[in-house]
Structure formats: structure tokens, C-alpha cells
Amino acid sequence: MRILVATDAFRPQVNGVVRSLESLAKAAPDCGAQISFLSPLGFRTIPLPTYSEIRLALVGPGDVARRLAQEPVDHIHIATEGPVGFAARRYCLRKGMSFTTSYHTRFPEYIAARTPVPEWLTYAALRRFHNAGNGMMVSTSTLARELTARGFERLMPWSRGVDHLLFNPDHRAAWDLPRPIFLYAGRLAPEKNVEAFLALDLPGSKVVVGEGPSSASLRKAYPRAHFLGLRTGADLASLYASADVFVFPSKTDTFGMVLLEAMASGLPVAAFPVTGPLDVIGDSGAGVLDQDLRAACLAALDIPREAARAHAMTYTWTQATRQFLNNIREAKAAYAGGRRRVPAPTPPAGQQTPVASTKKSGFLSQGQTIKP
Predict the structure, then answer these.
(1) Which of 140, 179, 221, 269 has its C-alpha lying 20 to 30 A from 24's C-alpha?
(2) pTM of the model
(3) Distance CA 220, CA 199 (A)
(4) What angle do CA 245, 204, 286 make, to 5 degrees?
């Protein structure tokens, strides 16, 4: 199967969406598929207002048509709701093509944090965008429940994986810092709630990895924290493996790829009990979820590194890629059968309607229920 993924998030951006798509493309050949990208590369770009670090591509449906004329594909998947995503969506609708989408980022909350645009207005626009397709992939069942309540339709589970060779406890190195070491890795932006971590009264040292629009203000406000800037690859893996607790203060992430990277490195997690950590960590024993983030940080110190690593081993990119491809096959089959929409599963007679699960697989299988 040849799949074109239309995405506004691509290199040189460094974020979970980019890492997810690159890992998906890498794993796809072993699962019987080839994935190529329609991205801002090769197009003129302009900075995104309020997100100057992100650039928008000047692209239209005609650019999508020219790309497909050069490289025909079997399916189009739209990963983002930017100019590239809108161009691909308009093309598919005009041509009557089946397409799927995925929901990666809480833009309504992010935009509301930086502008006076209300969340409901952005959610209305996103709902219109995604509901036009034949399936919207979401990373967790907690997110699926939330989006279903907001009127999003035809949700499909698509989890994530992690590179267990790169992110490994064996990469542990000595740090000349007071222990314990509490580590944050990710973008430094208002929506990431990094201040909730840096303001905590914790023993030892606080280390921050990453860059973003809040970098300067955070460095100034918290001079005792150690800001290491952007780190990737083996360098990042060594930092994970060398810390004592990974602190994830975000309340807006839809998944949190860094959670898997930290746990694969043998690093226990401290986080709020919100979408993302609830599904990725849950009751696995690989981390502590608490509304009191300080209490979670201190309790996570007692978690064996082996427990964190073992939980991360249950997430693989092979499984995630097969799930992604199965979603596409389901959407295409429904469309080919004359059904514009992917139908919701019907439980066997006498059983309750399936509901979303908090397990990492996304949703309960057909006919399963959660006991009261």
C-alpha cells in the first residue's frame, strides 16, 4: 500500500508529531506499506502568527494534484490541520477520494493560551475539518472520549511506539549535579506548563532540556535550574538514562512521546492525572500521577528503573504502524462499499455498547465493556 501523509509538521521542527511520522515511515516497509510525505519542504513559507518558530507553507490543491501525478498513491492521510492539510483535504473532497486524518495537537487550548480566540471556536473549525474524512485517528482512549463529547466522529485508535535501542538504561552517565535529578524534556512554551515543575520545592537538581518561545523568560525566572537547550538522539537518550525522575507537567498534550522515551531509558515518571499520562502510565507502576506534582516527584523516586523500562517495552512502532494501516484499510473498505462514513462497531446481542478504555491499545475491542 502506498500512502501519502500530508503534514505541516516536518523537519526542521522538532516535536512529537514529527517524530511519530518519521517513526511510522521507518516501520511501514516491514508492515507491507510505503509512506511518503507532502510537507512544507519545497514550498515558500511564512511564520505562523503567535507561533513564529513554526512556518506555514503556501500550498493549494493544485500542488497536491501535481504531486500525485508524479507519484500515484493508494491513500491520503492528513496529519495536521494547517495549509498542507487543508490543501490535501480540499483535493480529496473535490475528487471524491476517501481519506483519513489524525488528531495530534490541542490547538484550541494552545491558541487560547496565546490569543483571545476562544476554545469553542477553534474546536468548531477542527470538528468540521476532521468530520469530512472517513476516520480520525487519536492516540488515547481518554482523548477519544473527550473528542466524542465535543462532536468528533469516526474515531480510530492509533497508539505510539519508542526506539528501545536508542532509549536504553545502559546509556546512563555520571552527572556532576546534586542528586536526585529531576528532568523535563520538551518544548518551552506556555501550554507545556513548565513553570509548574520549576516552581516546586524539590531536593537535588532540576534539569530542563528543550527550547521554545518561553526559553528566555524561564531562564530568567528560575536561575537555579539547569537549562541544557535542545538535545536529540544519543545525547538526549543519555540525559534520560542519567536522571532520577522525569517530570511531565503538561496538562494539554494528547499523548506525550517523551513519556515513552523516558521510561524506555529506565526513568520513572511524575505527572498530573490528565490525558496522556492517564493512558500511557495509568496503573502500570512505571510512574506516579497526582494532582500534587511535588508529591508525585518524590514518590517516583521509589519506583525501580526496571519497572519503567518494562512498561515501555510494551510499546513498539511495529504494533503502532500495523494499527495505523488497519485503520486505513477499514476506512477504504467502508468507502468502497458505498458507505461514506466508517460505522461504529455493534456489540453482540445482550452486551453493552463498547466504550473507550484507558488501556494503551486505545479502545475496547468489539463487545467488550467496562464493569461498573
Answers:
(1) 269
(2) 0.86
(3) 13
(4) 15
- Consecutive H or E run containing 100: strand 99-102
Measured CA to CA, the distance from residue 183 to residue 206 in angstroms comes to 6
Residue 268 has pLDDT above 70, yes or no: yes
Residue with cell 492509533: 158
Q: Measured between alpha carbons, how far is 361 from 365 in angstroms, rounded to an integer?
A: 9
Q: Which of 345, 336, 350 shows the shortest CA–CA distance to 363?
A: 345
Q: What is d(CA 285, CA 182) in angstroms, rounded to the nearest whole number?
A: 18
> Going by C-beta distance under 8 Å and a sequence separation of 6 or more, which residues neighbour residue 147?
103, 136, 138, 155
Mean model confidence pLDDT for the chain: 87
Note the pLDDT tens digit of each residue in 81-102: 989 999 999 999 999 999 999 9
Residues of the chain with CATH 3.40.50.2000: 2-157, 169-312
For domain 2-157, the CATH architecture is: 3-Layer(aba) Sandwich (3.40)
Sign of CA dihedral 114, 120, 122, 127: positive
Burial of 124 (C-beta count, 10 Å sphere; 0-12/13-18/19+): middle
3-state secondary structure of 272: coil
What lies within 8 Å, CB to CB, of 41 at 6+ separation is 10, 11
Query: Residue 296: what residue type?
Result: A
Q: Give the residues across from 78 on adjacent strands.
A: 6, 101
The residue count for the chain: 372
**Following CA atoms 286, 289, 292, 295 in sequence, which dihedral angle do they give, to the nearest 10 degrees?**
-20
Cα Rg, the chain, nearest whole Å: 21
Among candidate residues 16, 80, 18, 24, the one with its CA nearest the CA of residue 259: 16
